[in-house]
């Protein structure tokens, strides 16, 4: 059974990391999903519990996702 209770769609516009930080601050959000204009890959910028910022750089893989371990 899925635990996803809401789905939201939006466009991840190409921008620099600095621009993404500005957008996240302007929107007063704790995370921001964008397309990195240098790599053209999806990135997730997030505010950490220590108020610093973290960055997840997603890379597209052509391999299938690994299977979850069975209980």
Question: Could you give the topology of this structure?
Answer:
Elements: E1 14-15, H1 17-27, E2 31-36, E3 42-47, E4 53-57
Parallel strand pairs: 1-2
Antiparallel strand pairs: 2-3, 3-4
Question: How would you describe this protein?
Answer:
By secondary structure, the protein is of the alpha+beta class. The longest helix has 11 residues, at 17-27. The chain starts with 13 loop residues before the first strand and ends in a 14-residue tail after the last strand. Strands 1-2-3-4 form a four-stranded mixed beta sheet. Strand 2 and strand 3 (42-47) form a beta hairpin. It has one helix and four strands; from the N terminus they run E-H-E-E-E. The model has no long low-confidence stretch (mean pLDDT 92). It is globular, with a radius of gyration of 15 Å.
Short key terms for the protein model shown above:
71 residues, alpha+beta, four-stranded mixed β-sheet, 1 helix
């Amino acid at each position: 059974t899925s635990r996803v209770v809401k789905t939201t769609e939006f466009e991840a516009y190409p921008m620099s990391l600095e621009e993404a930080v500005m957008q996240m601050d302007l929107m007063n959000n704790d995370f921001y999903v964008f397309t990195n204009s240098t790599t053209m890959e999806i990135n997730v910028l997030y505010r950490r519990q220590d108020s610093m910022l973290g960055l997840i750089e997603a890379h597209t893989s052509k391999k299938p996702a690994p299977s979850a371990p069975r209980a």
